[in-house]
Amino acid sequence: MKPAKLLVLLVSASLSLQACSKKTGPSLAEITAQVQNSPAAKTLFAQDGNSLEYFHGVQDDSLHTEKFKHRFNGVEVLGSGVDFHSNDSFQGITPHLSSVTLDTSPSFDASTAKQIAQSLEPKSALQGEPTLKILPQKNTQTARLIYIVPMQDREVLLDAHTKQHIATIADHDNLSASNVKSAASQGIFVTPKFNDSDLQGCELKSLAGIVEDLSVNTCKERISESCQILNSNKEAQSINAQNCVDADESIDASAARAQKNASIYLNYLQLSFHRDGLDGQGTNILSVVHAGQESNNAKWIRKNKLLAYGDGDGVHFSDMTFGVDIAAHELTHGLVQETAGLLGIGESGALNESLADFFGKLAEGNEDWKFGKSVVLDKSNGDAIRDLQNPGSVKEVYFDSLLNAVVAPAPSKRSSAAPMVEPCTPDNDSCSVHFNATIPGHTWYLLYVSLGKSKAEQLVYLALTHYFTEVTDFTDAAKDIIDACKATLTSDDCDQVKAVLSATEMVKAE
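The structure corresponding to this sequence follows.
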């Protein structure tokens, strides 16, 4: 048997060196040796084909982390790896390792994967080549080889052995303050006109209400120049980020609110966590308003890393820019993308939504735990989108195995979660990510009540940025929260944390 080796790839050396320069403690070489000799790593290396690869470092005021990713036969195992954590009074190794025994040779090639993805999502164009990953199955302690097929506004996940459709993760369903961009597209909406699949021309409409029919050639030119394109339902069909430029917020009230919302969130990150923007590097936030004249949604678009606001239909919801917590929620999705990268399906997707709710409310700053209250007009299912303090006061929708919509009070405990039924697609809310979000969301609220604002937000933030992975589920999150507590808070604090996690059934009581 050929011995497995620890691979140290310094692809992020500059980041790590910058992080290490801020602390005293073991060097990266010493950390690598400790990780390699840890019991978890030795167990991993006992099986041929396993390796660890240096990923990157994370540095905050209270904790320093170096992360190592797990590969099996050269294929990345999502969410699997080993982390080294340290501060002035603590050192510890956290394994997030998944046991893998599977054939890493797919049963069909990338071209076939693209054909299957295109047949599943005929309205979305292919963009780029499929990649192979290994997806752990937490409930069965097994793993699957998968293709991730990139498309225009979504990714399709396929089992690379059986061709089974696992998930479609769609963008439309999920920095320094002085450089915030708040683009309004300044009222130019282009609606393409098609005869079957052939472009016949388009209609251009301005905010002033002027309508103009355009020829095919002119239409193509305006589409290529426009910040956003609306379809016949007045919803954003596509957004061309490179064409979205700074708007004069005095011209457009929605743009002014978007500018203010982004500034509030950036200030929150800076004041609470000393973080310079979503990526920690001060990269601009781009916001696009009027992204759907009747759209009851705001959305973080991962591909372009921008926040798009719908105008609301005036019946169920108002203009989404009126919700500071709505904006902060969507921007937190950007923060998650830059840190743990939680997959937006199942429990990891619900965890993503809960973090967005929690930090969205904290950034808003009024200690009202009813998320989206300021934009809800139709209160027949409750006066908010979700309520972290009293989840059951708001009715949510989940989908059963037959895709029947079930309206029920939002859950506060894991035993009331909606079931996960593959494939996870926008049709079943990516396996009920919004319905199940209030389970961890209520947990974060109870931590806030138990520990106080400062300790609770720091603890959840550290868990997100230092511990969580792409496939962290509720059980993993509970363990990570406890580990983060042990590294940074007192034993009394951690006892309170464990009590909260038990109360919401994120973890079983000991």
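Residues 253-273 form the longest helix (21 residues).
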